[in-house]
Fold these 2 entries.
Entry 1:
Amino acid sequence: MPNEWACKEDTMSIRDELNRLDEEMEKALGNLDSLTALEALRVMMLGKKGQLTAMMRMMGQLSAEERPQMGQLINERRERFTRMLDERQQAMQKKERELRLQMERLDVTEPKPLPEIGSVHPNTLVLNEVVDCFTGMGFEVVEGPEVELDHFNFELLNIPKNHPARDAQDTFYIDDNVVLRTHTSPVQARTMTTRKPPIRIICPGRVYRADEVDATHSPVFHQIEGLVIDEGVSMGDLKATLAAFARRLYGSDIHVRFRPSFFPFTEPSAEADLTCVSCRGKGCRICKGTGWIEVLGCGMVNPHVLEMCGIDPKRYSGFAFGIGLERITMLRYGIKDMRLMYEGDLRFLRQFREDVKEG
Amino acid sequence: MKVSMNLLKRYAPIPVSPAEYQERMIMTGTGVEGIDDLSEQLENVVVGRVLTCVPHENSDHLHVCTVDVGSGEPLQIVCGAPNVAAGQLVAVAMIGAKLPGGTIKKGKMRGVDSYGMLCSGPEMGVPVELYPSVGDEGILVFQEDHPLGTDVREIFGLNDHVIDFEILANRPDTLCVWGVARETAAAMGTELCLPEVQVKEDTTASIGDFAKVDVLDHDLCPRYAARVIRNVRIGPSPAWLRQALHAAGMRSINNIVDITNFVMLETGHPMHAFDLDKVAGRHIIVRRAEAGEILRTLDGKEHTLKGGELMICDENGPTGLAGIMGGEESEITEGTHTVLFETASFDRTSIRLTARSLGFRTESSGHFERGVSAQTVLDGLNRAAQLVNELDAGDVVSGIIDLYPNPVVNQPVVASVERINRLSGVELTGERMVEILKKLCFDAKVEGDTLTATAPKFRQDIEGEADLCEEVLRYAGYELIPTTPLKGAADGKRSTGMLQNDLMRKLLSGMGYYETMTFSFIAHKKLEQLGLPEEDDRMNALALRNPLGEDSAYMRTTLLCGVMTTAQLNQAHGNEHARIYELGKVFDNVHRTAENLPSEYNSLCLCAYGPGEDFYTLRGTVEVLLRQTGANYTILPVQETWLHPGRAAVIRADGEDIAVLGEIHPEVAEAYEMSGRVYIAEINLPKLFAAAKPMGYVAGLARFPAVSRDLALVVAETQPVGPMMDAMREAGGKLLEDISMFDIFRGPQVGLGRKSVAFSLRLRAEDHTLTDEEIVRVMNKVLKTVAEKFGAEIRA
């Protein structure tokens, strides 16, 4: 049975060869130093021209009984080698990625330039808060001209010709009949002459007074005036409205106090003081120890003004108030010199940002 | 107005501390700016008698004195004053005494212990008005007797407070001690005790024999009253009078002049005293000045009158400016024998305009400008006569000249209790209202709902129900006003203009721009520096009649000048990079409104300089603003005097120029003192928002594939790319979804003076996959258009 022997002989040599391959594989895997080498090993063992494939070819020499047996052994190795190589590849890839991540470490605390976000002017920030507060109470924003007729700026507001408030030292004149508005009240006068009550408006805008510039004066500044006209409007309604404004702008511990005062277009008139926003009423330098700061003027619209604007004072009453925007802005942010607001120095402007406040 | 508290207390008791008093007055409507405690400046200085006085052994000018201050052992005090002598009654600053210059400590002078100091007037801060002999050299020596140990503040009237009242414009009646006394009594709930004015007349003489007055212009002088004092005895005023004047900031002159000033202080009626012998013809004529008339006033100044000012004249001509200042000629002097006192009511406007035009105000004109009641003129005049009696300064001739052709009487105001309560929000009974009004010297009564009240004769400000409401409320207490939230719903909203501005500001903040604000004024020079031609609308700025200065003489027609000035300031302050803007009204003086006012509109001006800024970064910002409004626009090169000729663009939409932008012309930059390249844009917001489109519905995502085609076109170097793209977009029609430019090539291959511009076109149909024919048709149309319009050739 030379043939049978030969077969046995071949079987033995394939087995030896497989064992040798196992050893070689173990050794090669142990020496691997790169994914490239791993790919080369995969080709050498499992590729079309690889050693296992070569062995499969040798199977032709085997007997029919031995062939499946050997085939199984070879396939077993193919699977095992593939698994070993894959596992090794994954391990190496993982290690390589870890190495790369290690290399890519950044100093997350290193300072870098930021994208620059701008900001609106502090006056605008505060104006927006004020407007939100009043629109929330049903006020509509109405605007009017800054170069204004004497008729609306003075006449209809109970400030007749030759009234001291009209003096050139206070008012900028264009000609005898045209002025730069000295308050935003003419917008109220215009509204009263063109609309029927109920009226509930605020009028923000620039106003002009012939003042020289210093830390607390400016020939150009901003006012926000409010006007409500309806049946049965009382001074209590005015106080509640201003109290809501004060709380919204400066916090819930801020209260309003009315003091008797005088304005030509309101009667009764009041100065509305707020709890000092700096010391919260305890008394400090800013409020001169009183715990109160003078913030705005207000009152019930003078019946004579209503009449001049064509509104029946027997049926309707109303209130008006005027807030100096710069004043409340300076109080809000602790700005000590009004000139900063009109210089536009970025070192000043960059400090402002919008606050998110609870309702 | 400054008032001595001691004087005020004579008329209305103040049973509370100064701080409480201030609070209560403020809360009832009388402003108090502050209360100064005069006694704080001087403490522990007492009257002492110099018992012995011997020269100091080691000095040629010091004396060693023993001084009795009425308490046990005499004190040893070293004194350097040359006038010190034994027997004198002096002011002794004890150890620990507080003087304006510091605190007194025990000292040793050239080896001799000194237990205090003998004071001079200046060392105690006591002015001559308070004690006449303080002006003398050396230490103050009391002329009259005082008990030893008396606190000197009592002698000088320094145990007092000075109250600084702030008088409201509608309450000129409170611009005097009696006025604030009335308010004080009402506020404190104390008794008002004004002096009863009684005049002891010299019945042997009648005023008609001494003087004659004619008022020719009663419209400017509703009432003129006069009294004559004969046998005038000019002399110094008593201490109480000097002290009262001093507290009010007035100087003591002599008894007659002091009486006029004191009556003004007390009653609010400015007075004038004439030396009647110096009044020509003893005849006073009140009339308007004629143009060119000349007057010398008490202060020695000569005034040339414009005509129309109200004058006090005698038969020789003008002697004084009515209500403002008397004349030099008839001034009261040591030698005055006969005096005419004038108390009058003058037209406030006339006084104000005259004082203004002549450029000076006096205490007197201040009173008249605010308004002096004609009804109380005689109260002032008689009070002066009474003081003449009291001070024995002369004999009051019997009779009064009182020219008052149209007497004013306060009319009763009829009001409704219920309406007053409804207006104030405070529930008060009619009886309570009457009680308050009576306290304020009103004549008041209530019947049912009807409140009838007549204001006292010194009040001129009570016209109607609302005035009564305020009177009642301020004494009932403003703190009673409840807080009652507004009733009824209303639609609160921002104006459209405000919403537009909000959008711009929000976008600009996101793009790193900071909002600035500058004044609305402009110097014409700044406009000229932009190089604008004379006929440019912006050069025709609205001029102010009374500007603060040349730099602020016009209303701005553009924001450029203000923003450039702000940029310059930032450069000067070392800010290397800036993105700033201003959004505000500009004033177009050429296109005027129906009311013939200038057209005001919102303009937006952006400015940037520094690293990373160039023409395109600025243009990008402007384009974002335009895109966010949905406006369709084109960008075109433009020539503007204030911009770099090769770096200036106009943005146009719907045929309107919406914005101009570019790099500031170096000449303009130089004129504005800016350095480096500065980029600026000005946007007309009404025009921008006129071109704005509402957002509308969004499109679905494309369902059919797009085709891309690249195109390199060779055109003249000077050909701007923008219009080419606009033309291609139009030619491409609906199928051309997008077009972008990705390269510009210049080189010999495309020829000198030419450039090759590479575009990428994306084509797509909404409802089907494009066919080759469609693509070719679109591309051919695009090519044909650019060839015809711009001479563009496909790059070989």
Entry 2:
Amino acid sequence: MTAAADTAPTRTTTPVFRRAVEGKALPILIVLGVIILIWYAFTVYLNAPWQIDAYERAGTEWTATDLVRDTMAQERPVLPSPHQVVAEIWKTTVGTRLTSKRNLFYHAWITLSSTLLGFVIGTALGVLLAVGIVHNRAMDKSVMPWVIASQTIPILAVAPMIIVVLNAIGLSGLLPKALISTYLSFFPVVVGMVKGFRSPEAFQLDLMRTYNASGTQTFWKLRWPAALPYLFTSMKVAVAISLVGAIVGELPTGAVSGLGARLLAGSYYGQTVQIWSALFMAAALAALLVGLVGIGQRVVMARLGAKP
Amino acid sequence: MNWALTGALLFWAAAWALNEWLARLNPHSASARRALGLLIPAIFGITLLVVWEGVVRGFDISPVLLTPPSAIWTRITSSLPTLWADFQQTFLKAVLIGYAIGCGAGFLTAIAIDRSPFLQRGLMPLGNFVSALPIIGVAPIMVMWFGFDWPSKAAVVIIMTFFPMLVNTVEGLSASSAIDRDLMRTYASSYWQTLFKLRLPAAAPFIFNALKINSTLALIGAIVAEFFGTPIVGMGFRISTEVGRMNIDMVWAEIAMAALAGSLFYGAVALLERAVTFWHPSMRSG
């Protein structure tokens, strides 16, 4: 018996408080708070040596409060403080013109467009391949092991080569990056959809046969709806991984535009604040994309009659 | 139509027909079935290589655009010392050390927060969220913190492998059924006895799932982290510099090595899984 279970019936609490304690929101907020506190502590700890050095060179007297204040306001800190990163993000999103190359939204949009293009192509390809694998025994036996084996291959390592080679023959811009996202995102879709297309049980397939349903009818009326939950689950993985693909694809293009280019440029010039703000933008983008797929899943599942 | 292309297409058709025929066979003995399960994908793989070679020769594609497998093979055999040095730097140092520390830390953290449902509720959604993030982006920061040599790559690998391990282990620790836990309680077994004799074995399939995911992630992390700065050795370094010099056959050789290392790593973890979780339903054959 836990303490909470003992006291819960006797103590009268407001529903809001009860939900906060028993739900996930409060623990997440507290853990996040602790992480931010640790971050601030590390900011002071990691940036202090440089700052002390700077004080000694300038010959100024300093106190602990000075040190804490100044470690959080360095130009190129080892670890920027959270509020510096937030300020940088604010400055480069709202503070600059939307069309400017210094705007972070502009870079995020470049990355997002190739992510989405690659994700759409990859998902379509994955679904088609899964259809082939489910309906053709030879394809299942020969292709499936390679689909699984290819997941053990570090595909991202190929990324710079694809970009440079496609650049050499005059293909540049969106498509090469999207190809990497495609390559990365089609695996989870194939694996998930093969499982999904096979998820109808034998008696359901038998029922379709008693209706004298053709192969196409069985596919559209039974296999496809049965596979939809699997599709959305694998799409969540696929969209996250195609964002990674797009970011890595931007590394070798000479740091022109996109979040990956911001990362690379930041690391060349030691602009840590810029790296962190690009990282946070990428994280926000990932959360947005996965969230959107999740919303799509909920809408489609509701229309299919699933209970929430 | 020239002979290389025609030959490749003929080979493709023949291999396809052979595979169709083989797939329809239904041998009775288990060993024959296993051999068939290896043979069919092997034929498919060889076909891919032959078609690749044929297309490159048939259409006279420049080796910069697509290197034929034969040229890649010559390059692999002629530059083994370089490949071995890169393999040592990237795989034996960065990947293996980072993998061990990352997975170990994730595992221990999961055990540490196991007794606190509050921490679990707080950490699990965050862990799931972080797993979806492009963590690879921390690579430049790690290179700044830990320098150009392998420790910075190992650090990236640690961060990438930590969260999948954490999430899977926590999930696995709750996988044992209530009946089993009640039984342990009737034996008056302590928390640690229950943990070691019941809950950890029950969590093994989940833990091995994380180990398998991480084996791929670790290699990717180490290679991509090398794009941000390395000493003059390493798989990622070799790939990025040889691309710049348009030595695409060397890049392919390096990729083949990485693929081989990744597959062997994954295979080793899978074999270990088979040995440890032999009792699990997914391991039963037939």
